Amino acid sequence: MKLRPVLLVVLLLSGFYYLTTHVGSTGTFAPWLHRAATALAEPGSNIAAVNGPLGKFELTQAAAAPAYDAEEQQNIAVYKKALPSVVNITSTAVAFDFFYGPVPQQGQGSGFILDKQGHILTNNHVIDNAQRVEVTLFDKHKYKATVVGVDKAHDLALLLINNASNLQPATLAESASLTVGQRVYAIGNPFGLSGTMTRGIISAIRSIRGPNNNPIEDAIQTDAAVNPGNSGGPLLNSRGEVIGITTLIANNGADQSSGIGFAIPVNTAKAVIADFAKYGRVRRPTLDISTLAIGPDIAEQIGLPADYGLLVERVLPGGAAEKAGLHGGTQRAYQGNIPVMLGGDLIVAMDGQDIANPQDMAAAMNSHRAGDTVTLTVFRGRKRMDIKVKLNDATDARGQTDQQA
């Protein structure tokens, strides 16, 4: 009787030893484990056995490549449509070392093809002061580029490559009706990594200062990741059409994306391109005036009939404003230590749109070209009146092509 417990333990241990050393490899236990693992695997997958020095591994593999969902399909479609139009730009400038020896310095940026003749749009700061500019297409072919024209005020430059075949121009959309929350894509050459696409939304539409402290009206703010090398590349809508030209990163001192990037609206670029095509240069419209921005405090101090607008301090002799009959200031005063002229016309609107500050005026001027006639609403004393002014060409008036309106 005392041997029974001992025999029972021996029998159980023998049975366990048999199962683990024989059935697990040659009997029915291993297939049962395999079926159990397969049942737990995702539908459409299968178990693949891999044998090696470390033993046997059973890997769960998808039976077939999964179908792309609608969002992925859209991302892929935008990339395939836009990529052939995007180029990488390398600019080479020559600096001098301590011993006055020439030292080549290279910069990188992006751009996009405008037409089959080889015109390419990019940022001016990408090619500024470069002695040599080279363009690399998406198929890796390289071409020497000629700078056809620049518009420093809008940070845009037009390039031309010759003898390039099978060019695919980008499709330009409209930027006047963009909406915050709209999905956008950026394709370019960040950190020299060509053909990189990132995605985000339009975070805001706002006026900012560009790389050369130039005003950019209605700039497109986005959280799509943009980094050094993206400059000059396209910002695209969900149909793969260009709505802006990536130009600036708000990086707070770090030379990388912070989730706040800006693009020049494509409608601004269209106006610049039209000037290049028609005149061979940018014709910046101007009123030929110097003005003082008016706020509630200044308006109250000098007794103006409106607490906003631009007070005309001076009209240039023979300029657009003088020809139209606008009046400049006649009374010298001081704003702090800065002399100002009071008593001139107060501009409060252009073509029915309020002009509250210099940014409003810059935005209004950007929608016009030299030679256009606009209607200014002004206060002369307490009298409100409309005056028609034919905009002058800033180049003709000041002898420079990069003057701001």
Descriptive overview:
The chain folds into three domains: 71-161, Trypsin-like serine proteases (Thrombin, subunit H, Beta Barrel); 183-279, Trypsin-like serine proteases (Thrombin, subunit H, Beta Barrel); 285-398, PDZ domain (Pdz3 Domain, Roll). The N and C termini lie far apart (112 Å). Strands 3-4-5-8-7-6 form a six-stranded antiparallel β-barrel. A six-stranded antiparallel barrel has the order 9-10-11-14-13-12. It has nine helices and 24 strands. It has helices spanning 3-26, 29-40, 70-82, 124-127, 266-279, 296-302, 320-324, 358-366, 394-398; strands at 45-52, 55-62, 86-96, 102-113, 119-122, 132-136, 142-151, 156-161, 183-188, 196-209, 215-222, 234-236, 242-249, 261-265, 285-286, 289-294, 309-315, 331-335, 338-342, 346-350, 353-354, 373-380, 383-390, 392-393.
* Strand order in the sheet with the most strands: 3-4-5-8-7-6
The CA-CA distance between the termini, in Å, is 112 Å
Tally the structural domains: 3
Q: Which oligomeric state applies?
A: single chain
Topology:
Blueprint: H1 3-26, H2 29-40, E1 45-52, E2 55-62, H3 70-82, E3 86-96, E4 102-113, E5 119-122, H4 124-127, E6 132-136, E7 142-151, E8 156-161, E9 183-188, E10 196-209, E11 215-222, E12 234-236, E13 242-249, E14 261-265, H5 266-279, E15 285-286, E16 289-294, H6 296-302, E17 309-315, H7 320-324, E18 331-335, E19 338-342, E20 346-350, E21 353-354, H8 358-366, E22 373-380, E23 383-390, E24 392-393, H9 394-398
Antiparallel strand pairs: 1-2, 3-4, 3-6, 4-5, 5-8, 6-7, 7-8, 9-10, 9-12, 10-11, 11-14, 12-13, 13-14, 15-24, 16-17, 17-20, 18-19, 20-21, 20-22, 22-23
